[in-house]
Design goal:
CATH architecture of the largest domain: 3-Layer(aba) Sandwich
CATH topology of the largest domain: Rossmann fold
Shape: globular
Number of strands: 17
Helix content: 10-25%
Length: 370
Amino acid sequence: MMANEGKGKTVVVGLSGGVDSAVAALLLKRQGWNVVGLFMKNWEDDDDDEYCSSRQDLIDVMSVADTIGIDVEVVNFAKEYRERVFSIFLEEYRVGRTPNPDVLCNSEIKFKAFLDHALRMGADRIATGHYAGVREANDRFQLLKAGDGVKDQSYFLHRLNQRQLSKTLFPLADLYKREVRGIASDAGLHVALKKDSTGICFIGERPFKEFLMRYLPPQKGEIRGLDDDRLLGEHDGLTYATLGQRKGLRIGGVKGGKSSASGDHEAWFVARKDTTRNILYVVQGHEHPALFSGDLAANQLSWIADEAPSTHWVYGAKTRYRQADAPCEIEGFDADGCRISFAAPQWAVTPGQSVVVYESRVCLGGGVIL
């Protein structure tokens, strides 16, 4: 962006209390935009300082706004979050899938409820501190990978549509995280070294299994070996397990199991869920064939250009965040979704997670793995 590009225009920046959104607001102000900060309050069930840091985050937002010299509005989207994100999140877990709440949170809250609210405020654009890019090409808006490949968040933004992208700015598109922290430090922003937030979108960092148990009670069942149907232990509920999971199974090594190079028994990994019989099947070894899939089916498709990509064309796709793009092709579409095949089998392809398709730097969209 050029200096003074935003002169006479208003942008509402979603401020989270972290360094990324703070620097996004700072850069836009330097570019001449009339910047207004907006802090979203979206979780109220147990808003305490142990897990939910919203009070401290708001304090940080106000401090950043004071340093930059912008106004801040606080808005409560807790009702929208519960209806549009959390209820779906729980239902997916209830039926044994593993959803990605950040994907829904972006499409339904950060770029829908937030966008609509900002436009009612008179904004010309909204902005966030996401590491991603947007550009206009051939009368369409494209979502791009960030310059910082380690921090790229386009995977979580793949459900954004043309309207949302046309109104969105990503000031950090070409910056590396270290540069962002440096800008914050030079500007005297006290959040320059603040730790990045993790955990469930807007709910915070907490013991995840215990959190789910509050909403989805345990339903104990058997853990069995997929190769020999041997009874190995007991699980607390298929809800709390995900494909490829290693930790928390409480079955340890089993005498007679495969041995690793060190002589210890290889770790167990979740390979399959039998929701009809409430059985969790596991295998030994990270490279067990049962953990790999050569193709997948996906539904709830969302394509950024408002049209589906061509079939039988080589793309790259991720079936989980922080995964390298895997060469693939879309074999075809039907009323329920599409099927994607990979050049090499992919590890722990998990129902409920998102498969996101790319053509070089351009994120085309994706769907939910079945």
